[in-house]
Amino acid sequence: MSAATAPNGTANRGVQRLQAAFEKARAENRAAFVPFMTAGYPSYAKFPEIAHELLQRADILEVGLPYSDPLGDGPTIQRASEQALAGGTSTHVTIELVRELRRTSDTPIVIMTYVNPIYAVGPEKFMQLCAEAGVDGLILPDLPPDQDIEISDLADRYGLGVTFLIAPTSTEQRVKIVADACTSFMYAVSVTGVTGTREGSALNEVPRMLSLARKYAKVPVVVGFGVKDAATARSVAQVADGVVIGSAFINAIAQGQDVASLADEIKAGCQR
């Protein structure tokens, strides 16, 4: 398959499915509920069971590709990645796990990955594998869009949306660059730093950041980092198109708590 050729029927497939998810949430007067789970956590065998519980409740499921140097992730997700890697969850295994999920669910699934795993496989091969497995989009936390030589173009050829991140420290020029590059949704990091639960006051920058993002965004804007429960989800949902929750679910699994109940509680908080 040449670099200029994508499989038949893949054009815009992921983007369209993601857009439909946001439209459905908007029609129900709520922010989209976007839970995160590290692929292969807490084990290869248990991950699909937990992911299915989340998929039944999610508007979009974000699957983290385990990586040995996850600079944007806090201790909770770092530990989950280490455990998944120790259990044998590689890039190829992550994609196969998504393929299994896709057999029983039409809910959009996006993979959060750093750039190195993409280049380790080969950018086009990575996109081809994702498209064939039913992945709808990619979240790229360590790739500045103005330094993206080929990944976005390849993703587009294979029908995958791409998402880049902004932070409270992002300048207006940087926000515009990111907004121009996002094809599925834009990801606003609520606080400066890594993922993990924080006090609700840490979300104070969200309204200002969202106001700036909406000046340029051509796609929905979601907020992540620091959302841990229904109360913080409700606060973010008033201004964002989607709410991402990750560490809270990882912690719940580690403590033997019921993930489904937590998901129901947080999704209820996404109502406006």
Automatic annotation (TrEMBL):
**Active-site residues?**
E62, D73
Q: How does it assemble?
A: Tetramer of two alpha and two beta chains.
**Job description of the protein:** The alpha subunit is responsible for the aldol cleavage of indoleglycerol phosphate to indole and glyceraldehyde 3-phosphate.
Q: What protein is this chain from?
A: Tryptophan synthase alpha chain
Protein family (similarity comment): Belongs to the TrpA family.
- Keyword tags: Amino-acid biosynthesis, Aromatic amino acid biosynthesis, Lyase, Tryptophan biosynthesis
The EC number(s) given in the record are 4.2.1.20
Reactions it catalyzes: (1S,2R)-1-C-(indol-3-yl)glycerol 3-phosphate + L-serine = D-glyceraldehyde 3-phosphate + L-tryptophan + H2O
The pathway that the record names for this protein is: Amino-acid biosynthesis; L-tryptophan biosynthesis; L-tryptophan from chorismate: step 5/5
Q: Which domain of life is it from?
A: Bacteria
Biological source species: Deinococcus antarcticus
**Would I find Lyase among this entry's keywords?**
yes
Is Amino-acid biosynthesis tagged as a keyword? Answer: yes
What molecular functions are annotated in GO for this chain?
Answer: tryptophan synthase activity
